[in-house]
Amino acid sequence: MEVILAGYNIDTELMPSLAEGQRDGRTLPQLTPETIAAAYARISRSEKRVDELRQETTVQVEAARKSNSRIVFDMGHSSIAEHAVFNIDVIGVSRLLVEDIQHFRLCSFTEKSQRYVTLNGDFVVPQEILGSPWESEFRDIVAAQNDFYFAAIKILIPQMLAKHSAIAATPAGRTSLEINAKEDARYVLSLATQSQMGMTINARNLALMVRRLGALPMTEAQQFSAKLLEVAQGVAPSLIRYTAVTEYDKETRNSLAEAFGAADVATSSPRKRLVNLLLDPRNAPTDDDLLATLLFSSSCMTMEACRREVASMSALRKKRLFATAFAKMNPFDAPLREFEALPLTFEVIVSATCFAQIKRHRMASIHCQPYDTSLGVTVPPSIREAGLEKQFIAVIKRTENFYQRLREQHRTVASYILTNAHRRRLLLALNARELYHLSRLRMDEHAQWDIRFITTEMIKQARRFLPLTLMMAGGKDGFAAMREKLPPAYEHDLTRQR
Asked: How does the average pLDDT of the chain come out, rounded?
């Protein structure tokens, strides 16, 4: 595992002196994002221009650090730490740890894709079993998974090229089909498979990540936490504090599981459909709720009056009002913020492959259960078409046999051996606006088939309650056709404003 500080923000006032200093060998100014944070912290209590405040802090670094410590920590204005931003290279971590790292909402991640890159078999062996009798069998099973992966790619690529010969006739089409073969073969790979990513994070969230990951029982997570703190704290010591693991972070979830009597119980409830919208029809959000919210923002009426007005409208008028909200929308436009007023909650069962994509939608609230072998596995259709399902399932069964035995002795690291095909149950809470974002990306023709199926089913179920609200939900490729079906919108007459 490597955690490398790739960059951080510095004041542009320092850049000319940096260039000059490199030429003539002068001592370079001290570079730290703390100076910008300190300058911004002083804005609220100073009559000086903000650029003057920045100039002061660049030559008074120690004073800036003392100011940060007092304002951010003593006075509790933690948002000041968000002005310091770090770029971090993360190399050689497991896909299992990636799930925990990318759980943090207000960060940016770009990860090595198992869809586009042919993997080379690298994986992480958990520290907890290194040197133990478990290590050898762990390596053997990962080797078997990787053997199937490479063998499947060799079979799936020619199968897909033959099946879609028209697409394969162009270089771009051939590349796309080869990607499809790799993305289906990867379902057999373990969560121990190594990955890498670029991470952009501010100082406030970096401290939170250090503390939370340090509280996890996995040694890999604790090592990552320590390395992350090491590379960043020296650059911004006044902003990265309160990183020690707390009993709250370390013990609360375990205490809840024990209190519920569920600490040692694997999921045994009957398997349901993969997507289930959790709504009480008597209290479900409605199109009228959104129209009332839109009317509220467009008028000086109370919300109660808005609801009464909407209730009196004809069905045609409601459709035209929704059409007006969508008429000038482009595929890259988010719906108006009023769409956030409609909350939706789904219970979904997804493969690890699908979860790797869902977890990127961090504006949603995603609550995860552990991976659960009783939920079965997701088998790519191409694996079945190629006659590889029997071999695929054989690898899965061998994996699960080892997982069950390892889990009895090393519960915290057993999931490393599970595959991208294994499933977990999620509670996915999001509003209609975020659901639109999900649909644009994940129902598009370029989306991966697994998450496209899940997202399509989510939209289908939600439309039963919100047919007008979600009339433009869907992938980018279908946007033009959806807009053509819109009823006439109300035209805005600019002359009325004169």
From this structure: 89
Q: Which residue has the tokens 């790797």?
A: 356
**Closest residue by Cα to residue 92 from 2, 205, 217:** 2
Ordered DSSP codes for 251-299: HHHHHHHHHHT-TT----SPP--SEEE---TTT---HHHHHHHHHHHTS
CA distance 37 to 9: 10
Instruction: Please give the distance of CA 34 from its chain centroid, rounded to a whole number.
Output: 28
> Alpha carbon of 10 to those of 95, 112, 235: distances in Å?
32, 28, 11
Distance CA 282, CA 182 (A): 46
Q: How far apart are CA 415 and CA 398, in angstroms?
A: 14
Query: CB under 8 Å to 22, separation ≥6 — which residues?
Result: 28
For 10-22, what is each residue's pLDDT tens digit?
Answer: 877 776 666 565 5
pLDDT of 155 reads 94
Which regions of the chain are under pLDDT 50? 494-498
Summarize pLDDT for 283-316 with one digit per residue, the tens.
889 999 999 999 999 999 999 999 999 999 999 9
- Which conformational region is residue 299 in: left (phi greater than 0), alpha (psi within -120 to 50 degrees), or beta? beta
- Tokens for 102? 């990318």
pTM: 0.88
State residue 486 phi and psi, 5-degree precision. Answer: -65, 140
> Residue type at 259?
A
Nearest-angstrom CA–CA distance, 276 and 348? 6
Question: How far is it, in rounded angstroms, from Cα 355 to Cα 421?
Answer: 10
Cα torsion 158, 159, 162, 167 to 10°: value is -90
Three-class SS state of 200:
strand
Q: How far apart are CA 86 and CA 203, in angstroms?
A: 7
Compute the half-sphere exposure of residue 359: CA atoms within 13 Å on the CB side of its CA: 26
Is 189 within 8 Å of 114 (Cβ atoms)?
Answer: yes
Both tokens of 32, joined, read: 């730290």
**Position 350: which residue type?**
V
Q: Are 436 and 339 in contact (CB under 8 A)?
A: yes
